[in-house]
Records
---
Amino acid sequence: MRKMIVAVVFAAVIAAAGLAAQDALAKASDGGSDWGALGFLMGDWSGDEGGAMGQGNATVTVRPELGGALLVCHHRLDYPATRKHTGTVEQELLVIQRDTEGKARGVMFDTAHNEDHYAIDISPDGKTITLTSEAQPSVPRHRMVWVRTGDREITFTHLMASPTSPDEFVPETAGKVQRK
């Protein structure tokens, strides 16, 4: 019985330490870093995402790299097998860097061997982050909209525009993630 109590107390202390570390990272990245509104994204996230392929499980990890010069975002989307589709995994790597004037820009790579360059705009209240890929002939254009809906939650929408109508975006997937 005594060993069980010690184990429970030990587990509670470890869990509390983990939550405290996540909260410290979120607080430091939200206001304490020079990433501004983008700092809120730092940490580990999980939730649901869906679109034409069905509903999947999304995990997102955002970390500063190279001494804080970059933000690196790993996104993984697991679609389970259904009657209409085989199970698939999509992965993306987004690297965000500030240019010489301090404006954030990004480049994304994915498992389909795409490379997209993004302009990043942040709403005046800092709650909406919009990434829009550069228009290119014969390549679809992408827009991602991330909205901070709470202290530990983000909703997001991925939109796409055809090369012939590069400013007419239509929704492709949408979802919601919570900070782990």
---
Amino acid sequence: MGVEITEKRDKLCARCGALELEKLVASRTENSWNCFVNTTAGAELMLSNSLMVARFKSDSIQLDGVLCNLFSQYFVPLPGRQVQADLMLWAHHHTEGYDMVSLSLRSSIGHPWQYWLFPVEQPQEPLYGVIHGTGHPVKVDCADIALAKSWLEQCRAKHKSKSKHCTPVTLSLKTPLKVIDCQTRQVRVLHEHETYVCLSYVWGNTTTNENFNGLQLPEKIGKTIEDAIYVSQQLGIPRLWVDQYCINQQHSEEKSNIIKVMDRIYGGAEITIVDAGDHPLGGLPGINGTTRRPQRVVHFRFGSYVEVGDILRRIKSSPWNSRAWTYQEGLLAPRRLIFSNSQMYF
């Protein structure tokens, strides 16, 4: 997706303006960063490709500056104290595939990177002297499934012979596996050599529709399952395994047999769709009208940066990660396409 580069420049407070971020991003070499450390108070070169630029205290934040305004939400209290921990602004030089500098924020009490700013991706007509990178602003109501499909294809091509972690296991079950045919919306037996998608989600307070006859999906089903059917089709794998409909919930023997081989079912899937949104019954974030949290794009003089929150933190705090059952599903799946309230993650 192209990103429009505008002439708008966001305001920085006096302290952020004095950091000379433009100079830092433009130099991006270890020797140049050493010079930056020698001339900038508080800067510290910790690694050859990572530089601590500044340290912020909560009482020094100026909310009229765009960076301070963004950073203010990430202050956390020190354990057992009323004061808040300092925040450290870092710069990172990336050299694998892209020559770019990202910015990140970290708490002084040892939390991992929790907030990032990435330069926006290369526009169709690059602007001379402006830094471009891999930042990909997301649309709040429309996840880029074509991008997800390219991730899957890249994984298939590059990891098949190198990584057992990415390759689905060969499915061998005593009880035939049933899947939803996303085109006919019928539940049928998976044929040999057919690939399929799994869905990992929290049921919430729903139960299997009483009108389900075991063969044809009811006309109205939960939005998360409906969205997963749509995503499966867009990925080019129109076969979906969902425990709610692919296990006969009234047949105790079948249910017991399937539960015993859950490792092979999720391990054999081409990819597993994970609903890590805030609301179990709200559908997949970014799919068919379920909105995501808006992103902020910061416009510096030297280029535009897009904010990226800590995706792992959001996943860990989601209802999906609170259940042992779904934790098992995520652990067993070789590939996961995760839909959170802020972004899509592979």
---
Amino acid sequence: MSTSTDAEPNYLHRISHKRIDPPALTAQTPLPQLVEEAFLSYNAGRLREACRLFVSKMLADDATVGLSLSGALTPAGLGISCLVPLLEAGFIDWIVSTGANLYHDTHFALGMDMHQSRPGLDDLKLREHQVIRIYDIVFDYENLLGTDRFYRKLCRGESFQRTMGTAEFHHQVGKYLAAHEDQAGGKHRSMLAAAYRYGSYTDPVGTVAPDTVDWDFNFDGHNFNADPNAHGTLTPTYDYDTPGTYLVGLRIIDSNGDTRIGTMYVTVNDPGPSANAGADQSVNKGATVYFSGTASDPGGGPGPLQVEWDFNYDQTTFAPDPAATGTLTPTHEFDTAGDYLVAL
């Protein structure tokens, strides 16, 4: 029979990764050894685990690397120092970001300055001098006004006069920011511009430009009839007026002239008509009761709706009153006191 004291060392060894006994660091200690042998516990240990994950998984040739951004990262210059180099080196495949990070990223592409300062500044003085503060980052109020002017002018342009998703919108924005940076001749500072230069609308061989993307929302499998309203976007919308099953085709042409058509099916259901007989009423015997019903048919079946009323519905057999046929606002007189269920 084992005592708890006897069992404890065995249990301790089972849960132990290794005994803590790191070597002393020197000026010659390389970075990998620093991470592996000195970053042992607490947040340093979690950073070591992240580094291992990066080396063993994220650097694999077939790995898809996604990056999510939240918090005020780009105002602090992390777009310039980290994200742009990662995009240029091909380490990022897709990005999900808050709008604020992409908005403030635009400041750098437009040549606007952001300044490192300190927290605890007098906000009244900042307001008097039209200085904006994000914790310990400060910048001129004109940065916001100028960026707003840029987006207002950009969104009035021809390229933006159609429905598009946020991914395509920021791809288009990156196109203009990249052109602005190239024209200015300075270093590449914008994450959006870098994402445009090094990603989006690509296949393994050639590049698929937005103007070679088309959709046919009733593809017959042979003749591709492109919808002009969906040209150039990977995220179109379409309204079907008639119920049925439709084959939808997406056609792309890459820079090598290769064409591919992908398909999917969309089933459009007929929800049928809806009827509302109106609110409950309490009236005197023999009085004229005025009804006001409503009806709709989102499916848009052929012909007009047939409207009928039963002023004493038994919830089993619908007995229409001929005098109320064809109208949503009939009248009726009840000669006997009681509760009546009225159905439209």
---
Amino acid sequence: MDAITKELATQANQVSCTIQEQVKELMEDALSARTMHNYRSGWREFARFCNDRQVSALPAEPMTVCSYLAELAAAGNKANTLSVKVCAIRMAHLTAKQPDPTGSQEVKLTMKGIRRRIGAKVNHDKPLTLDLLKKVVDTFPDNMTGRRNKAMILIGYAGAFRRSELVSLKVDNLHFEENGTLTITLPRSKTDQEGKGMTKTIPSLGDTQYDPIAALREWLDAAGITEGYIFRKVDIPVAPMVLSLVLGGIMEQSFRQAMTISGGNPKIFFGSVICVTLVALSVLSVLLPFLLPRLKAWREGSRETA
């Protein structure tokens, strides 16, 4: 009987752990990946601020948060950026089940004073007019990259799509109607976090040169795309992509460690012959694609002169 009881208790613990993991995943899915990235970045900056001043970051005192916000405002950060930092601090404290310092009157008054002093105005970019759009399209070359870019900008303009919405479009989201229009179904977007879905109709224009539907058909036919994502990268070298995936995180971590050790002084990258050589090779690898054509033209010109 004792063995059966222990087995049932073990199974119950396993089920409980599984449910806890599922709850954790659901809570993480409540926020977008971009929002979570901003919160993590904001919290790391605040924790670094507290560590440098030897004060507690979790839980943090309201005046510590006020000092942090005042320093960011003095450095020229906008009010909207500071609001994201406040949300990151709040999320960290709520997750750790600690008292939230951002809800205090001191922090609220500090943020209000910052908004009054530096303002919270959002600078909107000027809209892209149809005449400018045609000029942009005319600059695209007559190749695969040009066809893709032409279809992307015309579809994006006609449907007022966000960048994230454009790159997430798949063939299954397209419905070419008999009347010549195109219906695009978005399963999820920034304004539809719960995935209710949204449908947009793209009309066919009389001018085929700037017709978004004709440009999209031309791109799909040229690229041979019948399934999956619509707007894809063209001619991607496999080796650099694999190296970036494998070494990208390691290089970033090493760079951060070097800057931390040196106190933000970039001279640490020129402290030895090996470092100088690696930096020079990196710069040369960036400049070489631009220098080679000029060197080739100079040599040909020298031969003709001789």
